[in-house]
Each structure stands twice: as C-alpha cells, then as structure tokens.
Amino acid sequence: MLPRPGDLFKAWILPLTFVVGLLSTGAPDGRSVVRAVLVWLVLELLIYQARYQWNDIRGFHADLAHPDASSRGRLPGPAHRARAHVRASRLVMGARLATAACLALALRTLDVGRPLLLLAVAVFGAAFAYEWLRSTACGRTDRVPPPVRPGLLAIWIVIGAGYAIRGATGLLLALHDPSLAVIVTAALTMWAFGIAFVTARWTLEALAFARTADDGLAWEVRSQQAREHTLALVRWLPAGPPQDRAGGPVPPQRWPALAGVTAWQAPWNLAIL
Asked: What is the distance between the alpha carbons of residues 255 and 207, in angstroms, rounded to a whole number?
C-alpha cells in the first residue's frame, strides 16, 4: 500500500525525459529500456514512497491539526496512537529501502546498482534539506501571511529538487554520453518547473485555512500547524473575496484563485521565467 498514491502523478517525469532522450539518439536499445523501467519502478515505488513516509512521520502532529486532515492521505491518527503508527511506518519505510538495496544487488548485471544508490542519496539529501528547513522556518507564528524570511525562500527553492532528480535521471538513462551542458540545462529546467508547480499548488492548498469575509478572506491558523511555507504564498492571491468566473461567491476551498493573472513577483511566475 502506498502512503501517498495521489503523488504518483509525478511518476510521468522520468519516462517522459527518457523518451525525449531516446528520440535524440535514434532506435532504443532493449537493455537500456529494461534498465530504465527497473530504475523507474524502484525509484517511485520504493525510494520515493519511503521518503514520503519520513515526511509524514516528522509532520504527524501538524498534519493532524490540518483542516483537511481526514482527506489529505497522511499518516493517520489519533494523536494518542502516534507511537504505534510512527513505529509501523518506520518499519515499512525501512523495508522499502532494504528491498531497493536487495534489488540493486540482485540486478547488478543490468547495471542498476550505481544509479539506485545515487538516486537514494539524492532523494534523501534533498529530503533532509527540506525537513531541516521546515523545522527551523515553520511553527513560529499564526500571522497570515507570515513574513518571507530566508528559510521560507530556501524551502521554495529546495522543493524543485525532486523534479530535477527525476528529469535528469530519465535523460541520463537514455543518453549514452551526454554533455554536461545538456544535463545541467535539463536539471535546472525541471527544477524550475518543480518550483512553479509546487508553489502554485501550495497556494491553493493554503485556502483550506481560509473562510470568506465581507472584505476578502479571514484566516484561522495556529502556529503549531507549521504551515508558514504555504501560507506565506497567499500574499500573491488576487485581491477581493473569492468569486467564480461568472462573478458569483464561492467557498475559498473551491476558488480557482490562480486561473487568472497573478503578480509577476509570485514564485511560480519567477520560476517559469
């Protein structure tokens, strides 16, 4: 069972860049395709799912305090069962990583061991940076929007790393002798795409903490919910009360807030540029 089945939509990135790489090299090699499929499956079903479990373990109590806790697909409560649920999740996380290591050893004739080791280091290196930044930059204030401090800016930059890892891996698995310029350019492009996508998504998710007021939005948030990294983004929401495209009022959670033009300074717009 996957801890976050909804996040499997990101799994298209590696196959897409792999196909782009194949199109630039000509006819695909059967061994390379098999190798890429194996690396892809282990990355998405074992390494990344273990990473998501680590995130859910660290954010257990903050996730329980989220307004949409019952539908977000995080580690389930209640709070008094935290020790048992965290212990079970750690065991499954360890089993996933151990399975990935065993597969890397068992399939060494296909040369998947080194890519999987590098991917595990990259994924958990980016995860460590993200978790450390969240622990230092979030959980300090219930002000909305909170001030944009260096820690929050760093979080918004780090979140693009996973997209760069997936995108560059797909190209590297397809290209026999890629130039450094190609890999760096592809990685930076995918990194920027990740920043744009996630910051826009987080802005919409932050509307779960809002309710409609006469002069716009009223926010209900507590510092222990540790959501400054998402709530700081609402400063770039369009002004005024939520309305649908026909001009009628809608609840904030159903407001297509980013369907229109937003300020160029918004992180997703800067990342796209």
From this structure: 8
CA–CA separation, 156 vs 145, rounded Å?
A: 15
- Counting Cβ atoms within 10 Å, is residue 227 exposed (0-12), middle (13-18) or buried (19+)? buried
| CB-based burial, 2-11: b 16+ in 10 Å, e otherwise | ebbeeeeebb
Looking at residue 211, what DSSP letter applies? Answer: E
Torsion on CA atoms 239, 245, 248, 252, rounded to nearest 10 = -50
φ/ψ of residue 243, rounded to 5: -140, 150
* 141-152 pLDDT per residue, tens: 989 999 999 999
Phi, psi of 211 (to 5 degrees): -135, 155
> Considering the entire predicted model, what is its pTM?
0.89
Burial class (CB in 10 A: 0-12, 13-18, 19+), 83: exposed
Question: Between the CA atoms of 61, 225, 221 and 70, what dihedral angle is there, to the nearest 10 degrees?
Answer: -40
Structure confidence at residue 68 (pLDDT): 67
Residue 1 has pLDDT above 70, yes or no: no
Q: Which of 201, 206, 227 is nearest to 59 (CA)?
A: 227
Interhelix angle 150-158/180-205, rounded to 10 degrees, is: 120
User: The tokens of 43 are what?
Assistant: 């990355």
Q: Which residue has the higher pLDDT, 133 or 256?
A: 133
Max mean pLDDT range (47-56, 157-166, 248-257): 157-166
Q: What are phi and psi of 173, to 5 degrees?
A: -75, -20
